[in-house]
């Protein structure tokens, strides 16, 4: 799985050096990996939907050049029959604009996107600059409001961004 992750990071780097929509500009992509564990406060909610803001883009010129979601430890709880997570913004209807829902109750799959997303960023589909992980449970709530019901789970989310020059 480590080799697959290394290959994906190399692919992101290659895609970020490809000719962008802004012909005179070659973006420099910066990647950061976020680890979300089952013990995170987001999963204490007495709800079947949990959201966690990973970060906020600093301006409308910041573009996503790639994203990946990699379940490292399967999410588990005896009362849950399913957990899926997606990456998008906090705006209703845009919870999966970057990565579609992925089953995180198994570790055999991962989701990834590369390239400049056709210039798509959080300022294009909506004006919300927050990059948000949204997870949905089937069968029970994630928690009681003060404690999580989950007994296991760890998810890596790697997001690569590039900042366009002023006037772009």
Task: Explain what this protein looks like in three dimensions.
The chain has 168 residues and is mainly β. The chain has one helix and eight strands. The chain has a four-stranded antiparallel beta sheet, covered by helices on one side. It has a four-stranded antiparallel beta sheet with strand order 2-7-4-5, with no helix packed on it. The radius of gyration is 17 Å and the shape is globular. The relative contact order is 0.32.
Oligomer: single chain
- Percentage of helical residues? under 10%
| Main sheet properties | 4 strands, antiparallel
Count of individual helical segments: 1
Give the tally of β-strands. Answer: 8
Strand order of the largest sheet: 1-8-3-6
Element pattern in H and E: HEEEEEEEE
- The level 1 CATH classification is Mainly Beta
- Global shape: globular
Euclidean distance between termini CA atoms: 38 Å
Indicate the low-confidence ranges by residue numbers. Answer: 9-26, 121-125
CATH topology, which one? Jelly Rolls
Features of the shown structure:
single chain, mainly beta, Jelly Rolls, 1 helix, 8 strands
């Amino acid at each position: 799985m480590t080799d697959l992750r290394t290959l994906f990071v190399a692919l992101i780097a290659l895609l970020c050096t490809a000719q962008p929509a802004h012909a005179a500009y070659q973006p420099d992509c910066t990647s950061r990996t976020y680890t979300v564990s089952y013990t995170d406060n987001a999963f204490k909610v007495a709800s079947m939907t949990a959201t966690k803001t990973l970060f906020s883009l600093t301006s409308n010129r910041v573009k996503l050049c790639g994203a990946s979601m990699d379940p490292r430890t399967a999410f588990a709880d005896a009362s849950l029959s399913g957990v899926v997570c997606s990456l998008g913004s906090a705006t209703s209807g845009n919870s999966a604009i970057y990565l579609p829902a992925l089953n995180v109750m198994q570790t055999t799959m991962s989701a990834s996107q590369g390239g400049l997303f056709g210039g798509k960023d959080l300022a294009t589909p909506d004006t919300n600059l927050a990059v948000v992980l949204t997870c949905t449970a089937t069968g029970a709530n994630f928690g009681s409001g003060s404690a999580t019901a989950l007994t296991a789970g760890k998810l890596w989310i790697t997001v690569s961004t590039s900042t366009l020059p002023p006037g772009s």
